[in-house]
Amino acid sequence: MFGKLKKASNGKLLEPRTIGIPRALLYYLYPGLWETFLKELGMQVTVSAPGTRKTIEQAGLISESEHCLPVKLFDAHLAELAGLVELIFVPRILSTLPGHIACPKLGALPDCARAQCPGGITIITVDINENRTPLTESMAQLGRLLNADETVIHQATERALSALRRARAVPTAPRKPDALNFLVIGHPYNLHDSYLSGPILQKIESLGVNAELVSFADRTALPEPVKWDTCSIMHDRLQRLVPSEWDGVIHLSSFNCGCDSIVSTLYQEVLREKEIPCMTLVLDEHAGQAGVDTRLEAFVDSIKDQHEHAATCH
Ligand code: SF4
């Protein structure tokens, strides 16, 4: 931990001035929130650069081989920030949704970050446990750790929450009458990392499919039967799908994801009952786009064939 920080007369911070946010996990779970909050406190915020092939290669080199891809990418983004900023923000994420728990890997992130970069960086952390503590209180704790004034913290919190609401309000594409309509599900850091999901979404679109991404703005999911927060939101969404409105679901999963290995079966059960076809694409650092494209083409073709067959029979 660091000592008392200097403040300007307006209550904002004088030093340290620079703080980094890894563009991974926490960044996508709370899009827009941390960046806005820390800037409003008066910090100079650096978000690591959007992922590229090099980020994935770096992740493969420096991270534990058994980690899931999002955690490996977190390590690569962390390494990118080391040396560029005075502090790096890595919260201990225990729950992002009341009544639920987060993936256990997210609870260990600050410790893993310190182990990953011994002596090289200063990690600043707070617990995010929306099960017990409102997010606004966790933000206030972070502001106090940075020695910001309560009025500055309050204003920064309001602005950051507005940014979060805007970022989570994913616009839904207008439906085209003759197109297939797919829902794409996956953890926010899979869906919204443009390097991971971009080529897949572009391919889906090129096949004449309307793709809607699952939204994490809806906070009404109950913790049964799925206790993991983001998984529960996705399961809840699938349960509410009206079969006549959806032609398919694509699940972007991560290699070595413990949560997905369990909940995928539950997703499939829901979709089987509704007779909505589903395909899971597993993201890992070795996945080639050509193989993914072939699978997507086969999936879309099989659904089109089914529709044509059903139309002929009627
Ligand atoms: S939920 Fe899965 S992908 Fe996400 S951090 Fe946990 S193991 Fe990794």
* Strand tally: 12
Number of helices: 13
The residue ranges in which pLDDT falls below 50 over 5 or more consecutive positions are none
Order of helices and strands: EEEHHEHHEEHHEEHHEHHEHEHEH
Broad shape: globular
**Ions, cofactors, ligands: which are bound?**
iron/sulfur cluster
If you compute it from the alpha carbons, what radius of gyration comes out, rounded to the nearest whole angstrom? Answer: 21 Å
Question: What is the SS-derived class?
Answer: alpha/beta
Beta-strand residue percentage: 15-25%
Strand order of the largest sheet: 4-3-5-7
Overall pLDDT confidence: 91
Number of domains: 2
- What is the CA–CA distance across the termini? 70 Å
The largest pleated sheet is described as: 4 strands, parallel
CATH class of the largest domain: Alpha Beta
Write the CATH architecture name of the largest domain: 3-Layer(aba) Sandwich
The proportion of residues forming helix, as a percent range, comes to 40-55%
Which fold name corresponds to the CATH topology of the largest domain? Answer: Rossmann fold
